[in-house]
Amino acid sequence: MSEAERTPETVSDRVLTLPNVLSALRLVGVPVFLWLLFTNQDIWAFVVLALSGLTDYLDGKIARRFNLVSRVGQLLDPLADRLYVLTTLVALTIRDIIPLWLLIVLVGRDLFLLVTSVDVILGPVLTFAVFNRRKGWRHLRWDLTVIGILQLAALVYGLYTVAAVRPIAMVFEVDRLRLVTASDVPADDLRLAKAPYDKLSWTGPSLLGARTPQPGAEKNDALFKALEGIDVSSRPQFWQPYAQSRSAALAHSRPVAMLIKHYPAKADDARRRLVDMGADESTARFLPAMARSEWVAVLDAAGDVLGYLPLDGFF
């Protein structure tokens, strides 16, 4: 029977059906898929994505074949699809495979719809969709329990995503500062790190330095990891207090006056920000800061970081 021929009665209020279970499993697989992408386990991430595509096909096929189309399924199915698309694009952006502007263009509308869906659909809308006094209290209580579990899963997923992308360190390496998030740090390197760098911060980014790998096996390992896209700034075993990197940071910095001269249209705003952070334009220096947008770190004459300006320092 085609969708046009299907009457409203064929869309049920049931929650616990096989197609809905498959959709729920796809939702549970989203944080697993995201974690695999963040930890560079691309093959396993592809396997999870393939299984998601298979369950997407099966839940629709089963629902139509055995007349198990439900309101809950009509809500969960597109939600799961958008989550997989969004997490894939976000992970590719974080790993610098696609640019941020492309992510915004591709998922701007879907991101709004997704946030709205998670906040609204998994709560009152799902309850409204399944509520029917004719079911009986026992059946209705079970439906509401399932909805509660789905809301809890969405909350856990949201908290996990926030935790995975939280900034943990601003690390100086070679000639720049790099913002490192929790998802940037390989688990194996974290186990090799010495205290206090064997624990990732939950209270905001710490200002650190990255030491130079020792010649030999360590340098070769750092080179191969860099080819995989894992820089020493993301590896806690190379972290050290910023004080030990301050002289190198100062040596690679340039005068802030040069920065202001390079951006004459933004000079007034830059000067206001310098005053706010207590920086002396005549002696302050800057380093490029690699984050999700273009920034520079402003240093005083001693090499300590005073603050940041929203300018591109690579010129």
Number of discrete helical segments? 10
The tally of domains stands at 3
Stretches with pLDDT under 50, minimum 5 residues: 1-9
SSE order in H/E notation? HHHHHEEHEHEHEHHEEE
The average pLDDT score comes to: 81
Largest sheet: 8 strands, mixed
Global morphology: elongated
Cα end-to-end separation: 63 Å
Helix content: 40-55%
How much of the sequence lies in strands comes to 5-15%
Supply Rg: 25 Å
Number of E strands: 8
Structural class: alpha+beta
Please give a quick description of this structure.
The chain has 315 residues and is an alpha+beta fold.
Describe the fold and architecture.
The protein has 315 residues and is α+β, with helices and mostly antiparallel strands. The chain has 3 domains: 8-164; 166-244, no CATH class; 253-315, no CATH class. It is 54% helix and 13% strand. It is built from 10 helices and 8 strands. It has helices spanning 18-38, 42-65, 71-94, 100-130, 137-164, 187-192, 217-227, 246-252, 256-262, 267-276; strands at 167-173, 176-181, 206-210, 239-241, 254-255, 285-290, 294-299, 305-309. Strands 1, 2, 3, 4, 5, 6, 7 and 8 form an 8-stranded mixed sheet that branches. Helix 1 runs parallel beside helix 5. The protein is elongated. The model is unreliable at 1-9 (pLDDT under 50).
